[in-house]
UniProtKB/TrEMBL annotation:
<dbReference type="Pfam" id="PF03658">
    <property type="entry name" value="Ub-RnfH"/>
</dbReference>
<protein>
    <recommendedName>
        <fullName>UPF0125 protein ACJ8NA_24385</fullName>
    </recommendedName>
</protein>
<dbReference type="InterPro" id="IPR016155">
    <property type="entry name" value="Mopterin_synth/thiamin_S_b"/>
</dbReference>
<dbReference type="InterPro" id="IPR005346">
    <property type="entry name" value="RnfH"/>
</dbReference>
<comment type="similarity">
    <text>Belongs to the UPF0125 (RnfH) family.</text>
</comment>
<dbReference type="InterPro" id="IPR037021">
    <property type="entry name" value="RnfH_sf"/>
</dbReference>
Length: 104
């Protein structure tokens, strides 16, 4: 590896496929700059990489424009939720209670 360069990963999971890319970027590259420099721009044109929420190893990055990546970081791009998890659990519990009541 060239002095001053680090290796990171960028991952994105679309509904139908997942992509994991390994990138070599200069030390000091911001999270957002690493995303914009990745090949994901061409693979997922619907992604707004300049504004999408991101995290590193499952922890949301509050300011990706200022947060520099570190060697070995895995940048994750988050999609918006299709349904509220609390609402889904509530509906599942109500359905289970209804099924239990019918079987008694």
């Amino acid at each position: 590896m060239v002095e001053g360069m680090i290796e990171i990963e960028v991952v994105y999971a679309a509904v139908d496929r997942q992509v994991l890319l390994t990138l070599t970027v200069p030390v000091g590259t911001s999270v957002r700059a690493a995303l914009l420099g990745s090949a994901l721009v061409g693979e997922f044109p619907e992604l707004d990489l300049a504004n999408c929420p991101v995290g590193i190893f499952g922890k949301v990055v509050a300011d990706p424009e200022r947060r520099p990546v570190q060697a070995g970081d895995r940048i994750e791009i988050y999609r918006p939720l299709l349904a509220d998890p609390k609402e889904v659990r509530r509906l599942r519990a109500a359905k289970a209670a209804e099924a239990k009541a019918r079987n008694q």
